[in-house]
User: Fold this.
Amino acid sequence: MYKIDYSIYLVTDRNLIKDKTLTEAVEEAIKGGATIVQLREKEATSREFYEVALKVKEITKKYNVPLIINDRIDIAMLVDADGLHIGQKDIPLIEARKIIGKNKIIGLSASNLEEAVQGEKEGADYLGVGAVFPTSTKKDAEDCNLKKLIQIKQKTNIPIVAIGGINKSNVGSVSKTGIEGAAMISAILQSKNIIEVTKEIKNIWLKNRMEDK
Assistant:
């Protein structure tokens, strides 16, 4: 599998987008520097999710950015997405791997060290760890602060992507932990200028990475 850049990880939520379509918002985020996109459609019907996924894949393919489908392995396979992201209550990772194959990315949500270590053992390609900061988009997420993030990074050997309340003001502190990426929803999608805010976030991420080395 080719090396994935997880640094600026966009997670979608159509409800947060104000004056543009989802595909327009995704394209603008990629132009601004988003390196990977997770399509998350919790309220859509299966048909809607499938049709949206096809449209978003056209955009991600155009810019050679990986597309990850949240939760729905059937949609991921139907649109030939680059991967799947599952949570602790979704289908077991081992079973998902049997279905989707070894050449696709599987990300797993983890809120503590035990879940992270188990996820790596079961074959996750990366871990989505959080919620790092308070967030309104994932109300059921357990808190996982920066200290826990560093601990998980030290005890595992696969890429770590932090999620939960990450924005322009705190993404630098996340970058300094040495993990591979920061996932964002509202910090990017609620912006009036998605390209510009994504550029600013990416610059802060890279600046803090360089300072940390």
